[in-house]
Amino acid sequence: MAISREAYVQIFCSLVGDNVARVVDARDGWPGHIEVQVAGAVRHFSLHVGPIGPMSRGKSYEYRFQPPGPNRPMLTLPGTSPLLIGVWDIDQPAVFVAADPETRLGDPKRVSTLFPERLFRAAQEVGWAEPYINSDGGVRWAFLPQLLPSFIEHIEQGVPLVPKDVQIAIAGAGLIDHPDAAAAARARAATTRLIRDARFARSVLEAYGARCAMCGLNMGLVVGAHILPASVLGSSDVATNGLALCENHHRAFDRHQIWVDPDSRKLKIHPSMLESAETHEQDKVFVTTTFAQIAPPLQKIHVPARQAFVDRYAYFDGRYDWA
Predict the structure, then answer these.
(1) pLDDT at 90 over 80
(2) How far apart are alpha carbons 287 and 269 in whole angstroms?
(3) Residue 64's beta-bridge partner residues?
(4) Cβ(32)–Cβ(68) under 8 Å?
(5) Cα–Cα 20 to 30 A to 91, which of 179, 182, 224, 305?
(6) What residues have CB less than 8 Å from 210, skipping those under 6 apart?
(7) pLDDT 10s digits, 227-279
């Protein structure tokens, strides 16, 4: 007996987790009204959901989910955001495959959402698959249901995520081997941290024009680094608590080999590095290309906060005695 779309709304929320997603009104499942806990807030969504199955003809490895019939366009209920997601739960673990709903809103045609079988098989194995770009340019994402809040946050923030980093976070949380509520919560927290780190890095790179504040390098080798580390109580993910740094200066900064004056923002390099520069030409290049003072960001509102440096040195008490 076929499962109704209304029942799929119930199944969908139970797979995400009863304490994370709840059915407000299943309606007829196209859409159903649900609420989801995202980043500590209750959010409402118009859920367009359906079962994933193989194509009835064509390539055996191609799968799809689709609207319940023609003249059933996607719509957004008042006070909600749209979701377009297929559910694969024939064999465990269950997997969600999501597509961008914005391109389908109001379209009366019964258009299938297509993707290869390897997409959701990868998500079964590692929890979060590498996104798949279809021939029409549409992106498909596959992930374990418990990670729906992380997926929503990722898409809404519009920041890039390295799938391998997400997979490591999921494995470290134990969600693959022990898919219980506690492991799911740890995986969501770890993924949220990656999203926030990516958002922070983007804001810092934009503030400095993607150039290292200590040497001016770009070439796609620059990252956003916290002044007061993210793990420290009181740290914030704002550009004034960050510096755009190339990989070399980032490593030196993290190893406490470069000191920044909180007031003048002048730089001091560790004596051991200066000594090495006297006998090694490449080390000398690093020292001589390092600015005497932090390069200013593009706008004054993003100038590094004095207190961020003060708090950094207090947290790493003793590590900067050489300065």
Answers:
(1) no
(2) 8
(3) 53, 114
(4) no
(5) 182
(6) 218, 220, 222, 244
(7) 999 888 888 889 999 999 999 999 999 999 999 999 999 999 999 999 999 99
